[in-house]
Amino acid sequence: MTNDLATLVRQAQDDDPLLALHATTALRREIERLEAVQVRRARVAGLAWAQIADAVGVSKQAVHKKYGRR
């Protein structure tokens, strides 16, 4: 299965439930990876955990717990 996002989005809408599930899972992993990259970039740029949490839509504690110890 390819990791091209556009292809995965199309596959996630497929009539074949197994193909759609595989694609949805791959999309979730890729989104998690992209979010982690953006959080690291934000921290390197000097943004506070509260600012990052606001952008992500969770509490400061939640974002720090998920990304703070990496």
Overall strand count: 0
Reported for the largest beta sheet, the result is:
none
Distance between the termini: 28 Å
Global outline: elongated
Helix content: over 70%
Order of helices and strands: HHHH
- Count of separate DSSP helical elements: 4
Structural class by SSE content: mainly alpha
Strand content: under 5%
Low-pLDDT stretches are none
Protein name: Homeodomain-like domain-containing protein
Organism: Nonomuraea insulae
In terms of topology, how is this protein built?
Layout: H1 5-12, H2 17-44, H3 49-56, H4 60-67
Helix pairs in contact: 1-2, 3-4
Keywords:
70 residues, mainly alpha, elongated, Homeodomain-like domain-containing protein, 4 helices
Task: Compose a concise summary of this entry.
It is built from four helices and no strands. The protein has helices at 5-12, 17-44, 49-56, 60-67.
Task: Give a structural overview.
This protein has about 70 residues and is an all-alpha fold. Helix content is about 75%, strand content about 0%. The chain has 4 helices and no strands. Helix 3 crosses helix 4.
